[in-house]
């Protein structure tokens, strides 16, 4: 494997972190932890 530029390593690292955060957010919003989230529209019936 060739020696990578530091900019390439930085871009791949940032992209990996952003992808991991996005996947965790989707898992939290729609996966099993979503049952613990409250719905503010259902909590306040005006």
Automatic annotation (TrEMBL):
Gene Ontology cellular-component terms listed: plasma membrane-derived thylakoid membrane
InterPro entries: PSII_PsbN
Transmembrane feature ranges: 6-27
Localization of this protein: Cellular thylakoid membrane; Membrane
Regions annotated as coiled coil: none
Keywords: Membrane, Thylakoid, Transmembrane, Transmembrane helix
Membrane topology category: Single-pass membrane protein
Keyword Thylakoid: yes
Main location: membrane
Keyword Transmembrane appears in the UniProt entry: yes
Domain of life (superkingdom): Bacteria
Example of a GO biological process term: photosynthesis
Family: Belongs to the PsbN family.
Role, per record: May play a role in photosystem I and II biogenesis.
Protein name: Protein PsbN
Organism of provenance: Phormidesmis priestleyi
Gene encoding the protein: psbN
């Amino acid at each position: 494997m060739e020696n990578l530029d530091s900019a390439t390593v930085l871009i791949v690292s940032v992209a990996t972190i952003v992808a991991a955060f996005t996947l965790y957010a989707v898992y939290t919003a729609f996966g099993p932890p979503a049952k613990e989230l409250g719905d503010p529209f259902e909590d306040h019936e005006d």
